[in-house]
Fold:
Amino acid sequence: MASPGTGEVRRLFSARGPAHLVRIGTFIGHKGAVWQARISSDATLAATGSADFTAKVWDTHTGENLHTFQHAHIVRAIAFPSQPRPDILATGGAEKKLRIYDLSRASTTSESSSTSANGINGAAATNGSHGDENHYEIGPGVHGGTIKSIVWGADPNLLVTAADDKKMRWWDMRSRAVVAEFELDGMVGSCEMSAASASASSGGSGSGNSGGFGPHGVLSVAAGKSVYFFDGMASHRPLKTITTRHEIASVALHTEKRQFVTGASGDTWVRVWDYDEGKELELSKGHHGPIWSVSFSPDGKLYATGSEDGTIKLWKFCATPYGLWR
Structure:
Protein backbone atom coordinates (compact mmCIF):
# COMPACT_ATOMS: atom_id res chain seq x y z
CA MET A 1 0.00 0.00 0.00
CA ALA A 2 1.37 3.41 -0.97
CA SER A 3 0.49 6.49 1.05
CA PRO A 4 0.44 9.97 -0.54
CA GLY A 5 1.19 12.94 1.69
CA THR A 6 2.85 16.31 2.07
CA GLY A 7 6.53 17.18 2.02
CA GLU A 8 9.19 14.93 0.54
CA VAL A 9 8.43 11.47 1.91
CA ARG A 10 6.08 8.89 0.45
CA ARG A 11 5.62 5.75 2.53
CA LEU A 12 5.28 2.17 1.31
CA PHE A 13 3.53 -0.28 3.65
CA SER A 14 3.26 -4.06 3.72
CA ALA A 15 0.63 -6.11 5.56
CA ARG A 16 2.72 -8.82 7.23
CA GLY A 17 -0.03 -10.99 8.62
CA PRO A 18 -3.55 -9.93 9.61
CA ALA A 19 -3.79 -6.53 11.26
CA HIS A 20 -0.04 -5.92 11.11
CA LEU A 21 0.85 -2.95 8.92
CA VAL A 22 4.59 -2.43 8.65
CA ARG A 23 6.28 0.51 6.98
CA ILE A 24 8.94 -0.98 4.72
CA GLY A 25 10.30 2.15 3.13
CA THR A 26 10.04 5.83 2.35
CA PHE A 27 10.48 7.34 -1.10
CA ILE A 28 12.22 10.71 -0.86
CA GLY A 29 12.42 13.11 -3.76
CA HIS A 30 9.24 15.13 -4.25
CA LYS A 31 9.27 18.81 -3.27
CA GLY A 32 5.52 19.21 -2.87
CA ALA A 33 2.41 17.37 -1.75
CA VAL A 34 1.86 13.99 -3.40
CA TRP A 35 -1.71 13.84 -4.69
CA GLN A 36 -1.79 10.25 -5.83
CA ALA A 37 0.26 7.05 -5.55
CA ARG A 38 -0.23 3.85 -7.54
CA ILE A 39 1.44 0.43 -7.50
CA SER A 40 1.61 -1.81 -10.57
CA SER A 41 -0.39 -5.04 -10.58
CA ASP A 42 2.73 -7.11 -9.86
CA ALA A 43 3.92 -4.62 -7.19
CA THR A 44 7.28 -4.07 -8.93
CA LEU A 45 6.73 -0.39 -9.74
CA ALA A 46 5.19 2.56 -7.93
CA ALA A 47 4.19 5.90 -9.43
CA THR A 48 3.49 9.21 -7.71
CA GLY A 49 1.95 12.47 -8.92
CA SER A 50 2.82 15.65 -7.09
CA ALA A 51 2.20 19.36 -6.59
CA ASP A 52 5.85 19.88 -7.54
CA PHE A 53 4.71 19.47 -11.17
CA THR A 54 6.29 16.03 -11.58
CA ALA A 55 5.30 12.38 -11.86
CA LYS A 56 7.85 9.86 -10.61
CA VAL A 57 8.23 6.12 -11.17
CA TRP A 58 9.97 4.05 -8.49
CA ASP A 59 11.34 0.52 -8.16
CA THR A 60 9.46 -0.84 -5.12
CA HIS A 61 12.21 -3.34 -4.23
CA THR A 62 15.24 -1.06 -4.34
CA GLY A 63 13.54 2.30 -3.88
CA GLU A 64 15.33 3.68 -6.93
CA ASN A 65 13.67 6.61 -8.67
CA LEU A 66 13.59 5.26 -12.23
CA HIS A 67 11.96 8.18 -14.02
CA THR A 68 10.86 11.74 -13.33
CA PHE A 69 8.51 13.38 -15.81
CA GLN A 70 8.22 17.16 -15.64
CA HIS A 71 4.82 18.79 -16.17
CA ALA A 72 3.72 22.41 -16.40
CA HIS A 73 1.27 22.15 -13.48
CA ILE A 74 0.18 19.92 -10.58
CA VAL A 75 -0.10 16.20 -11.37
CA ARG A 76 -3.30 14.93 -9.75
CA ALA A 77 -3.79 11.51 -11.37
CA ILE A 78 -1.59 8.63 -12.50
CA ALA A 79 -2.26 5.06 -13.63
CA PHE A 80 -0.48 1.95 -14.84
CA PRO A 81 -2.16 -0.56 -17.17
CA SER A 82 -3.03 -3.87 -15.53
CA GLN A 83 0.01 -5.88 -16.64
CA PRO A 84 3.28 -7.12 -15.10
CA ARG A 85 6.15 -4.61 -15.08
CA PRO A 86 4.16 -2.11 -17.19
CA ASP A 87 6.07 -0.07 -19.76
CA ILE A 88 3.58 2.80 -20.03
CA LEU A 89 2.16 5.33 -17.57
CA ALA A 90 -0.79 7.72 -17.86
CA THR A 91 -0.79 11.10 -16.12
CA GLY A 92 -3.25 13.96 -15.75
CA GLY A 93 -3.80 17.02 -13.62
CA ALA A 94 -4.29 20.76 -13.57
CA GLU A 95 -2.95 21.12 -17.12
CA LYS A 96 -6.13 19.32 -18.26
CA LYS A 97 -3.96 17.09 -20.42
CA LEU A 98 -4.00 13.29 -20.58
CA ARG A 99 -0.47 12.09 -21.31
CA ILE A 100 0.86 8.61 -22.00
CA TYR A 101 4.54 8.00 -21.20
CA ASP A 102 6.57 5.19 -22.75
CA LEU A 103 8.79 3.96 -19.90
CA SER A 104 10.80 1.77 -22.24
CA ARG A 105 11.95 4.83 -24.19
CA ALA A 106 12.45 7.18 -21.24
CA SER A 107 16.04 8.03 -20.45
CA THR A 108 17.55 7.07 -17.11
CA THR A 109 20.28 9.71 -17.13
CA SER A 110 20.65 11.68 -13.91
CA GLU A 111 19.18 15.16 -13.60
CA SER A 112 20.75 17.29 -10.90
CA SER A 113 18.00 19.87 -10.69
CA SER A 114 15.42 17.42 -9.34
CA THR A 115 17.25 14.34 -8.10
CA SER A 116 19.44 15.44 -5.24
CA ALA A 117 17.71 13.17 -2.72
CA ASN A 118 15.68 10.57 -4.53
CA GLY A 119 15.15 6.95 -3.52
CA ILE A 120 13.96 4.86 -0.62
CA ASN A 121 14.98 6.32 2.75
CA GLY A 122 17.07 8.91 0.90
CA ALA A 123 19.19 6.52 -1.19
CA ALA A 124 20.76 7.90 -4.34
CA ALA A 125 18.84 7.24 -7.54
CA THR A 126 18.79 7.77 -11.27
CA ASN A 127 16.17 9.82 -12.99
CA GLY A 128 14.25 9.94 -16.25
CA SER A 129 14.16 12.70 -18.80
CA HIS A 130 11.04 14.60 -19.74
CA GLY A 131 11.50 15.21 -23.43
CA ASP A 132 8.67 14.98 -25.94
CA GLU A 133 10.12 11.82 -27.47
CA ASN A 134 8.86 9.60 -24.66
CA HIS A 135 5.22 10.67 -24.41
CA TYR A 136 2.19 11.81 -26.32
CA GLU A 137 -1.05 13.58 -25.44
CA ILE A 138 -4.48 12.05 -25.96
CA GLY A 139 -7.45 14.26 -26.79
CA PRO A 140 -5.89 17.75 -26.74
CA GLY A 141 -8.40 20.34 -25.52
CA VAL A 142 -11.09 17.80 -24.57
CA HIS A 143 -10.91 18.04 -20.78
CA GLY A 144 -12.54 21.18 -19.40
CA GLY A 145 -11.15 20.86 -15.88
CA THR A 146 -8.42 19.29 -13.77
CA ILE A 147 -8.12 15.54 -14.38
CA LYS A 148 -8.72 14.02 -10.95
CA SER A 149 -8.63 10.30 -11.72
CA ILE A 150 -7.41 7.86 -14.37
CA VAL A 151 -8.45 4.20 -14.42
CA TRP A 152 -7.06 1.48 -16.65
CA GLY A 153 -9.15 -1.67 -16.90
CA ALA A 154 -8.25 -5.23 -17.85
CA ASP A 155 -8.16 -4.20 -21.51
CA PRO A 156 -5.11 -1.95 -22.03
CA ASN A 157 -6.87 -0.33 -24.98
CA LEU A 158 -9.52 1.25 -22.73
CA LEU A 159 -8.95 4.10 -20.32
CA VAL A 160 -11.32 6.18 -18.18
CA THR A 161 -10.75 9.72 -16.92
CA ALA A 162 -12.78 11.77 -14.45
CA ALA A 163 -12.29 15.53 -14.37
CA ASP A 164 -13.47 18.68 -12.64
CA ASP A 165 -15.66 19.55 -15.62
CA LYS A 166 -17.98 16.95 -14.03
CA LYS A 167 -17.48 14.46 -16.85
CA MET A 168 -16.23 10.91 -17.13
CA ARG A 169 -14.72 9.93 -20.44
CA TRP A 170 -13.95 6.53 -21.94
CA TRP A 171 -10.96 6.56 -24.29
CA ASP A 172 -9.91 4.16 -27.03
CA MET A 173 -6.11 4.04 -26.89
CA ARG A 174 -5.88 2.83 -30.48
CA SER A 175 -7.75 5.76 -32.00
CA ARG A 176 -6.79 8.12 -29.15
CA ALA A 177 -10.36 9.38 -29.14
CA VAL A 178 -13.28 9.59 -26.72
CA VAL A 179 -15.78 6.79 -27.29
CA ALA A 180 -18.28 7.82 -24.59
CA GLU A 181 -18.98 10.49 -21.98
CA PHE A 182 -21.08 10.59 -18.82
CA GLU A 183 -21.98 13.76 -16.94
CA LEU A 184 -21.79 13.62 -13.14
CA ASP A 185 -23.99 15.56 -10.72
CA GLY A 186 -21.05 17.16 -8.93
CA MET A 187 -17.28 17.49 -8.69
CA VAL A 188 -15.53 14.13 -8.77
CA GLY A 189 -14.02 12.91 -5.51
CA SER A 190 -12.75 9.43 -6.40
CA CYS A 191 -12.97 6.94 -9.24
CA GLU A 192 -11.71 3.41 -8.55
CA MET A 193 -12.11 -0.10 -9.93
CA SER A 194 -13.40 -2.70 -7.46
CA ALA A 195 -12.50 -6.36 -7.87
CA ALA A 196 -15.12 -8.67 -9.35
CA SER A 197 -17.02 -10.94 -6.99
CA ALA A 198 -16.09 -14.63 -6.95
CA SER A 199 -19.40 -15.63 -8.53
CA ALA A 200 -19.03 -13.09 -11.32
CA SER A 201 -15.42 -14.08 -12.00
CA SER A 202 -16.41 -17.75 -12.25
CA GLY A 203 -19.29 -16.99 -14.57
CA GLY A 204 -22.03 -16.99 -11.94
CA SER A 205 -24.75 -14.41 -11.64
CA GLY A 206 -25.21 -11.62 -9.15
CA SER A 207 -27.70 -11.61 -6.34
CA GLY A 208 -30.63 -11.51 -8.72
CA ASN A 209 -31.39 -7.79 -8.94
CA SER A 210 -30.78 -5.48 -11.86
CA GLY A 211 -27.41 -4.51 -10.43
CA GLY A 212 -25.68 -7.85 -11.02
CA PHE A 213 -21.90 -7.41 -11.34
CA GLY A 214 -19.93 -8.51 -14.39
CA PRO A 215 -16.66 -10.45 -14.44
CA HIS A 216 -14.40 -7.42 -14.92
CA GLY A 217 -15.10 -5.56 -11.70
CA VAL A 218 -17.10 -2.46 -10.90
CA LEU A 219 -16.06 1.13 -11.45
CA SER A 220 -17.09 3.09 -8.35
CA VAL A 221 -17.29 6.89 -8.56
CA ALA A 222 -17.90 9.54 -5.89
CA ALA A 223 -19.12 12.92 -7.16
CA GLY A 224 -21.08 15.58 -5.31
CA LYS A 225 -23.60 13.87 -3.05
CA SER A 226 -23.89 10.80 -5.28
CA VAL A 227 -22.08 7.52 -5.84
CA TYR A 228 -22.13 5.79 -9.22
CA PHE A 229 -21.40 2.17 -10.06
CA PHE A 230 -20.47 1.10 -13.60
CA ASP A 231 -20.10 -2.46 -14.91
CA GLY A 232 -16.36 -2.58 -15.48
CA MET A 233 -15.02 -0.46 -18.33
CA ALA A 234 -17.49 -1.54 -21.00
CA SER A 235 -20.63 0.12 -19.63
CA HIS A 236 -20.97 3.85 -20.20
CA ARG A 237 -24.10 4.17 -18.07
CA PRO A 238 -24.18 3.31 -14.38
CA LEU A 239 -25.65 0.11 -13.01
CA LYS A 240 -26.85 2.18 -10.08
CA THR A 241 -26.71 5.72 -8.75
CA ILE A 242 -27.28 6.40 -5.06
CA THR A 243 -27.76 9.95 -3.82
CA THR A 244 -26.97 10.77 -0.19
CA ARG A 245 -27.25 13.77 2.12
CA HIS A 246 -23.46 14.15 2.27
CA GLU A 247 -20.73 15.47 -0.03
CA ILE A 248 -19.00 12.21 -0.93
CA ALA A 249 -15.22 12.40 -1.31
CA SER A 250 -14.38 8.70 -1.66
CA VAL A 251 -16.07 5.34 -2.19
CA ALA A 252 -15.10 1.66 -2.28
CA LEU A 253 -17.39 -1.27 -3.12
CA HIS A 254 -17.27 -4.79 -1.66
CA THR A 255 -18.83 -6.84 -4.45
CA GLU A 256 -19.26 -10.06 -2.42
CA LYS A 257 -21.12 -8.41 0.47
CA ARG A 258 -22.82 -5.91 -1.86
CA GLN A 259 -21.93 -3.10 0.50
CA PHE A 260 -19.88 0.04 -0.02
CA VAL A 261 -17.93 2.43 2.19
CA THR A 262 -17.78 6.21 1.80
CA GLY A 263 -15.79 9.08 3.20
CA ALA A 264 -17.04 12.66 3.10
CA SER A 265 -15.46 16.06 2.55
CA GLY A 266 -17.77 17.82 5.00
CA ASP A 267 -17.37 15.61 8.09
CA THR A 268 -15.02 13.06 9.65
CA TRP A 269 -17.17 9.93 9.65
CA VAL A 270 -16.88 6.65 7.75
CA ARG A 271 -20.17 5.24 6.49
CA VAL A 272 -21.07 1.73 5.34
CA TRP A 273 -24.04 1.37 2.98
CA ASP A 274 -26.17 -1.41 1.51
CA TYR A 275 -25.69 -1.43 -2.25
CA ASP A 276 -29.10 -2.89 -3.14
CA GLU A 277 -31.25 -0.71 -0.88
CA GLY A 278 -29.03 2.37 -0.65
CA LYS A 279 -29.42 2.47 3.12
CA GLU A 280 -26.77 3.54 5.61
CA LEU A 281 -25.81 0.54 7.76
CA GLU A 282 -22.94 1.75 9.95
CA LEU A 283 -21.33 5.00 11.06
CA SER A 284 -17.76 4.90 12.38
CA LYS A 285 -15.85 7.71 14.05
CA GLY A 286 -12.12 8.08 14.54
CA HIS A 287 -10.75 10.54 12.00
CA HIS A 288 -10.35 14.25 12.66
CA GLY A 289 -10.50 15.48 9.09
CA PRO A 290 -12.19 14.81 5.75
CA ILE A 291 -11.69 11.27 4.39
CA TRP A 292 -10.27 11.50 0.88
CA SER A 293 -9.50 7.83 0.21
CA VAL A 294 -11.13 4.45 0.91
CA SER A 295 -9.90 1.03 -0.24
CA PHE A 296 -10.57 -2.64 0.57
CA SER A 297 -7.80 -5.18 1.22
CA PRO A 298 -7.40 -7.95 -1.39
CA ASP A 299 -9.15 -10.47 0.89
CA GLY A 300 -12.01 -8.05 1.55
CA LYS A 301 -11.78 -8.45 5.32
CA LEU A 302 -10.38 -4.99 5.98
CA TYR A 303 -10.72 -1.57 4.50
CA ALA A 304 -8.42 1.42 4.87
CA THR A 305 -9.31 5.09 5.06
CA GLY A 306 -6.96 8.00 4.45
CA SER A 307 -7.77 11.37 5.96
CA GLU A 308 -6.69 14.99 5.90
CA ASP A 309 -5.78 14.49 9.58
CA GLY A 310 -2.61 12.76 8.37
CA THR A 311 -3.60 9.23 9.37
CA ILE A 312 -4.51 5.95 7.70
CA LYS A 313 -6.93 3.78 9.66
CA LEU A 314 -7.74 0.09 9.17
CA TRP A 315 -11.28 -1.14 9.85
CA LYS A 316 -12.40 -4.76 10.25
CA PHE A 317 -15.04 -5.81 7.70
CA CYS A 318 -15.80 -9.42 8.67
CA ALA A 319 -17.79 -11.10 11.44
CA THR A 320 -15.09 -13.62 12.35
CA PRO A 321 -11.91 -12.90 14.36
CA TYR A 322 -9.16 -11.33 12.25
CA GLY A 323 -5.65 -10.90 13.55
CA LEU A 324 -5.73 -8.71 16.64
CA TRP A 325 -9.43 -8.00 16.17
CA ARG A 326 -12.03 -10.16 17.85
